[in-house]
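hey can u run this one w/ iron/sulfur cluster bound, need the structure tokens asap thx
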Amino acid sequence: MHKGTTFEKLKIASFDFTCCEGCQLQLANRESTLTDFLDLLDIRNFREISSEQHNDYDIALIEGSISRPDEVERLQAIRRQAKTLVAFGTCACFGGVNSLKNRFSLNELAVEVYPGMEVETGLVKKISEVVKVDLSIPGCPVNKEEVERIVVSLVTGSQVTLPKYPVCIECKAQINTCLFDLGEICLGPITRAGCNAVCTTGKTPCLGCRGPAEEINMAAFLELVKERGLSENDLREKLAFYNAFEGLYQP
Amino acid sequence: MIYKVISKAEFKRFIDALVRNNSSFGPRQVDSDFRGKALYQFLPVASFDDIALDYTATSSSAKHFFLPFREELSRFIFHDEDWEQQITYDANPIVLIGLRPCDISALNILDDVLLNGHYPSPYYLAKRKNTFVIGMDHLPLPDCFCKSMNHHIVSSGFNLFCSDIGEEYYLSINSSKAFNFLKEFDTRDPLDEENCRLAERRKLISNSFLTEIDVTGLPSILDIEFDSPVWEKWGNKCLNCGTCAMVCPSCYCYSVEESMETNLNGAVRQKKLYSCNLVDFAEVAGGHNFRPKNGDRLKYRYYHQHRGFAENDNQQICVGCNRCGRACLSDINPKNVINDLRMEKESCLTNVLSSPCRR
Ligand code: SF4
Ligand code: SF4
Ligand code: SF4
Ligand code: SF4
Ligand code: SF4
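ok here u go:
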């Protein structure tokens, strides 16, 4: 291969915290390019792919949110090693579904979920609340195609970008019926594109797993939901679902 | 142009044969909205019965048959000491049935911009040449304003145009291909009485418009109102979602992306339809954004649509289909925005004329 330069594999490690491990699983998805993809990586530490564990990685993918004191320590140790720390997936970027926990009292939850057991549990935090994040790849789960594109950019040293515009663009490109026309609330107009509008194409409203698009117009969005006489409860449930719009509206 | 008349029964046989033998697309109902109104899109059709001939308008235009939302422009292959670029303009022939006059006018505008300018697009040309366009007239929807834009009648840009004159269709045949297809079907020259019925049909259509937008002098009003508060008012409502440009038959903006393949042995250059309403449309290297405000971006969309750019001799490119208005979740539509601009201009005239009030 001659491209005027040679490329080095990324020394990468992947760690899971409070999550379902669905984003890590995506790394093994998309079989057509899987071997090419793995060829770009020198996997130093990744429980789901290999039992070998080394601690000389440059890039750390962090999956999941932080909800226990021991997780904080583990994460801080990873931060000390990693040159680039990536918040990988919605839980890591925004807290994710786990954040629903923060609406209840911790004691009540512990008793309900782990009756009769002693558990140490805290409020759910996104990764950036605990350590500095260098790169965020949102999505519940992450979109493997996008991950591949970003990995190729990292290997070749080109700029890593996410779409700045909202999901509606990708939804319209598939000639979908707008879910607002069907009387539903969809977070597409305020959510960052890049998932190829998979939910709305399947006629399910966007719940904003990829977080806010750049410079969203939240006021106009709240207004249009109101003007259409759609349920305020439904709206608030959707906005809170992944905790991705925290601070952008009055809950 | 050659004019013929065909009975509706024979028309059905003609379209059915055409559709069965070619990759064809026509209006189909995809959903009913929450009020029960039918929603249509141009989709693949395999027989005459698949086509919703009595459809109103499709939510998205037919633009993407010519300008796909995503299109590969070229492919690069790296080997040893060298690389090569592969470009293909292939387009499979298709039949597109049921376009409205405004839709065909929009294609003519795209032809102006993409074929008749300094840099004709071979990608567009391949698709345009390989698409057999059949137009159908219809009674306007309450919010159609193509008559105001003078696009409710179209006389070129199609292969065949069908006007509904009761028991028959009045056919305007605009290509030898269409003429040859029709040879095998029973058509005849229009009688005087049928010419009259065509004139009546056109008059009925013309008189049925409920929405009119006064576009006289609009380009100069747009110039005068460049700093108007109207832009801020509507800009404050705009979600920067780009929906308006995606569904619009005449918006043609795109972004170009180049990406390496995962095996690092090649790369692709892709084009994606874009919109001047998107937040980074006017962002340049280094991060500077020439249009940081919603209102500025919205203004440019109206500028291009209703004042025109030099690339097609400053012609308006809006054909008045109001797809953008129907699709905009924030209820931003050409009628309201343009009326506001007009009022703004008139009120500034009144302000100049009336004497200051005393208190
Ligand atoms: S369904 Fe959602 S994403 Fe699609 S156009 Fe409507 S609001 Fe946008
Ligand atoms: S449509 Fe919305 S919720 Fe679904 S994957 Fe995309 S961003 Fe996430
Ligand atoms: S005008 Fe409407 S459709 Fe267009 S970008 Fe703004 S909100 Fe979206
Ligand atoms: S109105 Fe905007 S998106 Fe449409 S063609 Fe013009 S500049 Fe492009
Ligand atoms: S600007 Fe709106 S009304 Fe004009 S052609 Fe485009 S979609 Fe139709």
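Residues 50 and 234 of chain A are 43 Å apart (CA to CA). anyway lmk if its weird
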